[in-house]
Specification:
about 475 residues, globular
């Protein structure tokens, strides 16, 4: 039978088979919407990772397997590049389990749809329009809606191929360079060559993807006064947190001296401001706390404050016990984590550009002008609506999860709120709540919070919404009193 006849026969069988028709309708309903397709693929990856981590071979030791709650929590934390853990990541998993976790971090950090598009580009040496649209929705939340999107974007649709190349190249190059810079320091610390290479790559990947898993004991505390290690990891986290569109814009600027996009400028400036303000606040509030900065020498304290501020972008690494920090400091870190990093990055949170747009709107309102402006560019009002939606969705998720976890654990509010925001912002900093015999019900709640935070509030809203329709009428206008 010829290929054409087989295809026609399969189509006739599919039309006659009600189960086949149902399957075709099911797949079409998800692949037609990039938002729904992203959620399905993302969730499937989490379930596959969970299944692999529940295998006896994934857990260190003989004759036992990881409980479902711990396997699921670790899988979600790895795929969502969060870094929260309910087990000791340095000793609990076997080499097979660690390989599964590394693959999950890599795919989750780059982005499921972006990774799929890169593999398709490698296999076919070209990328079609449908694949471009799917990849574009992974780098720009505004594209998940059915309505047309203006091409005055940080990355235009025609540049998706170049962006995918930048994502793949930057991820490989940055991770290998960071590994090369970390390994000698681990050798000096006393690690054997194989452990230094293996754990150096693990730590480099964890830093660049903003995950925050540490593959050795007792964690980063052993490098608390090491400027080389902290500087290298901070650079890796910063590069991962600014986002691939910004890296793409910087690479284009280095090649052609082309003007940096508004998105790149806003992301870089807002990120640097938040890092600086955060470091000053942490240093001021913790300077006399003997359990954190107060127990360090005068040279190490500013370095720790700056490192912690950078990690609050979504890095999740820490050289001090977060649970020993003052409540005021935890609140500052709550705000920094909730904002997170750049859009289309390995970081989480509502994103720095969202905060910047709200600030531009407030400035425009104070000046009494209609348009939001930044760097001699006008920002359309639909971006403001999207920003407000992201903040409200994020605050709702955090508030709901906090109430539920508080009820389950009866733990202090500042600890629960901190870990919930860390989960939503896929940060990974923790007060110790997740490692202190957390009930399984609370683990599932935090896992769902990590999932919602990594999927993205805009993607989640677009996936849950009904198919968009054009409204052919406008109702009479009436203004409520605000403020």
């Amino acid at each position: 039978m010829s290929t054409t006849n087989r295809i026609r026969g399969n189509r006739r069988d599919g039309q006659a088979n009600p189960f086949a028709r149902a399957w075709v309708a099911f797949t079409d309903s998800f692949t037609a919407s990039p938002a729904r397709f992203a959620i399905v693929i993302f969730t499937a990856l989490i379930l596959i990772t969970t299944l692999l981590l529940t295998l006896p071979i994934a857990k260190a030791g003989v004759g036992s397997s990881a409980p479902l709650a711990d396997a699921l929590f670790t899988a979600v934390s790895a795929v969502c590049v969060t870094g929260l853990a309910t087990v000791d990541m340095a000793t609990y998993w076997s080499p097979f389990g660690n390989i599964v976790i590394i693959l999950a971090m890599q795919i989750g950090g780059i982005g499921v749809l972006t990774m799929a598009s890169i593999l398709g580009l490698i296999a076919a040496r070209r990328i079609g329009l449908r694949a471009k649209l799917i990849a574009a929705s992974d780098t720009n939340a505004a594209r998940v809606h059915a309505r047309p999107v203006a091409e005055s974007q940080a990355v235009r649709l025609g540049e998706i191929g170049g962006l995918l190349f930048t994502v793949a190249a930057s991820a490989i190059v940055i991770e290998l360079v960071i590994t090369a810079l970390i390994v000698p320091r681990l050798l000096i610390e006393g690690f054997d060559p194989w452990s230094a290479i293996w754990q150096g790559f693990y730590l480099a990947l964890s830093a660049f993807t903003n995950t925050g898993f540490v593959p050795f004991t007792p964690g980063m505390e052993r490098f608390a006064s090491d400027p080389w290690m902290l500087s290298v990891l901070s650079i890796a986290v910063f590069l991962g947190a600014i986002g691939f569109p910004v890296i793409f814009a910087l690479a284009r600027w280095l090649r052609t001296r082309a003007r940096l996009t508004l998105h790149a400028r806003v992301t870089l400036i807002t990120t640097l401001i938040l890092i600086g303000v955060g470091a000053l606040a942490i240093g001021f509030l913790e300077w006399q706390n003997s359990a954190t900065l107060g127990g360090q020498d005068g040279v190490t304290r500013p370095m720790t404050a700056l490192f912690t501020s950078i990690m609050s972008r979504s890095g999740g690494l820490s050289t001090v016990d977060i649970g020993e920090m003052n409540g005021s400091t935890l609140l500052v870190l709550d705000m920094l984590m909730f904002v997170g990093g750049g859009s289309a990055s390995t970081a989480g949170g509502i994103k720095v550009t969202t905060l910047a747009v709200l600030f531009f709107a407030a400035v425009a309102e104070a000046r009494g002008v209609d348009d939001m402006e930044a760097f001699e560019r006008r920002i359309p009002n639909d971006v403001l609506r999207l920003s407000v939606s992201v903040v409200l969705w994020g605050a709702t998720i955090v508030a709901t999860s906090t109430v539920i976890v508080l009820h389950i654990t009866k733990a202090p509010l500042d600890f629960v709120l901190f870990d919930v925001i860390s989960a939503f912002a896929t940060c990974g900093l923790s007060t110790g709540l997740t490692s202190n015999d957390l009930p399984d019900a609370a683990k599932y709640v935090l896992a769902a919070t990590m999932w919602a935070g990594r999927v993205g509030t805009v993607t989640l809203a677009a996936a849950l919404a009904a198919s968009q329709r054009r409204q052919l009428f406008r109702r009479p206008e009436e203004r409520p009193i605000v403020g």
